[in-house]
Write a structure and sequence with these properties.
The structure holds 2 protein chains of 2 kinds.
Chain A lengths: L4 E6 L5 H7 L4 H8 L1 E4 L8 H5 L6 E7 L2 E3 H13 E7 L1 H5 L11 H11 L14 E4 L2 E4 L3 E6 L1 H4 L4 E3 L6 H17 L66 H4 L17 H12 L5 H9 L4 H5 L15
Parallel strand pairs in A: 1-2, 1-3, 3-5, 5-9
Antiparallel strand pairs in A: 4-8, 6-7
Chain B lengths: L6 E6 L3 H10 L8 E6 L7 H9 L4 E6 L10 H18 L7 E5 L5 H18 L11 H11 L2
Parallel strand pairs in B: 1-2, 1-3, 3-4
Classes of the chains: A alpha/beta, B alpha/beta.
Chain lengths: 323, 152
């Protein structure tokens, strides 16, 4: 019997998700043994035409990481959707937009102007910019366009499963792929379409070993500004910890290392908008009924959008900044 | 024709909704722009309710609750008082004028104050103009057209 086919692709991403797959250590050998890996630009040499040549629906599972922010990303999302039976948004960029999604606070034009003209290290007196079209004697060369708004994978194509995380933790990837391999071996039913795999439904706080008590804050601090009490909730100590508005699944690794949760697993199961939920949680712990004092405390939070929506701006309710 | 804003109002059941009722039974006049949603307490208003209303076509959101000290649940309105400034700040950083989100206190006996708040807010949002979220919806038709052009 032919082996099930596996594809991995990166769109707008850093490559960390691909590394996380390799971080499954010896398990990667089982994966490579069980699946026929037909496409994995980060680790193996394939061309887009190799994917185009695959019959529709022939790839059993595609793990797609990266956000959709260029016409090339979009083309590959559509192509891999067509060629795959199961398409999985793998990692925070694909599922929620993640760090590339913070580009939605500005515009494609502003980004290019800064990078090619205004940044302090740029010398470009003629203001040369990369072109998406160029005419040569042999014909016209075309390159992909940068989109003005970063989208998530589920916003542009139909997605079967989501594996959240920046990156998804190797032990959870291991769990999911082991389960998938078992299902394919036994022919047992797959999880319902739309399931979030390799994560919990609850908030990160449920996994956090730190002691929680009453949260009453009159001052927000950043991690370097205080000497931490290692056993106590970081939010109680005044640090903005995204735990209450973040999905569990990572094993609360950051908080155990003394770093507040940044929210990379996205919102928990019953939350639509991670940032709004965090705003609600933060407002809940402010210990003041005086409007002026409340306003001052809120003003002391640097960059609320970048903090509360660090990983989920494109999938949030408002999606992008208005010009 | 001048712009008529659609406004969403979250009114607390115990004070402000009753205040609005009083304005109605007393036949006080006020602009018809506000769509009222009754909630049990202004403390029930999640910031996402407000953002969702703005994302789905409301030009402004008005949250009305009991005066400080009068909350039926003791401190729900204080919770709201802490959430609203942060919600306004999020909206502002997303390029939406924070004046489109307003919190006011209206008691059950303040029918006249209710009409005054709604009139003021309607005038203010009307002056701000329509809220059109640009590039919010993913336009697959133009994305496909761009792809077709590039792969020619």
């Amino acid at each position: 019997m032919a082996k099930p086919k596996l594809a991995l692709y990166w769109a707008a991403s850093c490559g960390g998700c691909d590394i996380a797959v390799l971080d499954t250590e010896l398990k990667i050998l089982d994966i490579a043994d069980f699946f026929d890996i037909v496409f994995w630009p980060c680790a193996m040499d394939f061309k887009y035409d190799d994917v185009r040549a695959i019959p529709d629906g022939d790839i059993t599972l595609t793990l797609f990481n990266g956000a959709i922010r260029s016409s090339e990303n979009y083309e590959m999302a559509k192509l891999l959707r067509k060629k795959s039976t199961l398409l999985c948004a793998f990692g925070s960029c694909a599922s929620d937009g993640c760090i590339p999604g913070l580009a939605n606070l500005t515009s494609a034009e502003a980004i290019q102007r800064y990078v090619y003209e205004d940044s302090p290290s740029t010398v470009n007196p003629e203001k040369v910019r990369p072109q998406t079209e160029w005419h040569v004697p042999a014909g016209t060369l075309r390159l992909p366009h940068l989109w003005n708004t970063v989208r998530t994978l589920p916003q542009v194509v139909d997605v079967d499963y989501v594996i959240p995380g920046c990156p998804p933790q190797p032990d959870r990837i291991n769990e999911v792929l082991t389960a998938v391999m078992d299902i394919l071996r036994n022919g047992s039913p797959l999880p319902p379409k739309g399931s979030v795999l390799g994560a919990d439904v609850r908030a990160c706080c449920e996994e956090c070993p730190r002691k929680r008590d009453v949260k009453k804050l009159r001052k927000f601090v950043r991690p370097h500004e205080i000497v931490q009490d290692q056993g106590v909730c970081l939010l109680e100590q005044g640090m903005i910890c995204m735990g209450p508005a973040t999905r569990a699944g990572c094993g609360a690794k950051c908080v155990q290392a003394g770093v507040p949760c940044r929210g990379c697993y996205g919102p928990p199961a019953n939350v639509r908008d991670q940032g709004a939920k965090m705003a609600s949680a933060i407002a809940g712990v402010i210990d003041s009924d005086d409007p002026a004092e409340i306003e001052a405390l809120i003003d002391s939070i640097p960059d609320p959008i970048g903090t509360f929506y660090r990983f989920t701006l494109p999938s949030s309710t408002l999606r992008r900044r208005q010009p | 024709m001048s712009f008529e804003p659609k406004l969403v109002g979250f009114l607390c059941n115990w004070c402000s909704y009753t205040g609005a009722d009083l304005a109605g039974t007393a036949r006080m006049k006020y602009p018809p722009n506000l769509r009222v949603i009754r909630v049990m307490c202004s403390g029930r208003v999640d910031p996402n309710f407000i953002l969702e209303a703005l994302a789905r076509g409301a030009a402004g959101v008005l949250v009305l609750g009991c005066h400080p000290g009068d909350c039926h649940y003791t401190e729900g309105n204080y919770k709201c008082q802490r959430r609203l400034p942060l919600t306004r700040k999020l909206a502002e950083q997303m390029g939406i004028d924070p004046r489109r989100i307003r919190l006011e206190w209206v008691s059950a006996s303040e029918g006249a104050r209710f009409t005054q708040v709604v009139t003021e807010f309607t005038d203010e949002v009307r002056a701000l103009g329509p809220l059109q979220l640009s590039d919010w919806t993913f336009d697959s038709t133009s994305a496909d057209a761009q792809l077709a052009h590039e792969s020619r």
